[in-house]
């Protein structure tokens, strides 16, 4: 009888994490399971089907019991030459999956007991994994909300606002009942927004936006487009002809959480790294109901 894994439940507590990954060997075994399906598979050298691979002592390597061929489960990944224990890497990924407001470099430094330089590098590489794990996501379809936002920067005197210098323009796309995407954009011109929509939204979908003039192009591209006029204090409206309710509340809720997280956890994010943080937050939003599945997706993205 197969032993039930702690990851079978939707919750993944700290106690369960360390019970599942108490040491280096447990982490390596999990990577082998994700990359090769376990320790029994067809040997790439001798061709023996269902060959058994056993771990070599004091090495991150498994050896074929028939021909001695070596397989390194971390080869070609960010873990290949790392001196940081694999348990620390796995715990950092666990923290990224269970947090709501993100994990700062200083928090990783405290939790992992490493230098800030190492903690910052681990954080950025995990964010790259969230980008990789979402690189093959399907186009958004059905009813999709679009909304742009301005992140960072301050006006003189400490006042905030869209006119503040140093802000990064970002655009969010949310499929109702489905996934969320967010990208950095250089401006809010028609051509820029049109390219993002065509690259990420299935043709013929219903699209909700605010009253930004640049979105007017969407009807001509075959989308059923409805806009809410925030300037008139309108935040939702029902269209009787199409039977659709138009609003961008889902995306705006995402931006509220993201901006609050930047202020409280990260303080500031440069435009250079903004896409990494957007991918981290959309990854968490898309898989928030399955912490364990989120963790395994990160390991799979190695």
From TrEMBL:
It holds the Pfam family Zn_ribbon_IS1595. SMART domains: DDE_Tnp_IS1595. It comes from the Bacteria. Residues 139-286 form the ISXO2-like transposase domain. NCBIfam families: transpos_IS1595. This is Putative transposase. It comes from Sphingomonas changbaiensis NBRC 104936. The lineage of its organism: Bacteria, Pseudomonadati, Pseudomonadota, Alphaproteobacteria, Sphingomonadales.
